Amino acid sequence: MSTSRPVLTVLVTWGAVGALLAGCSEPTPTENTDQACASADAFTAAVDDFTDTLRPGADVEEVQAARDEVRRTFEDLMEEGGDVAEDKREALNKTVAEFRTAVDEIPDDTTLSQGLAVLRQKAAEVDTTRGEYVAELGCG
Question: What is the distance of C-alpha 68 from the center of its chain?
Answer without folding.
Answer: 12
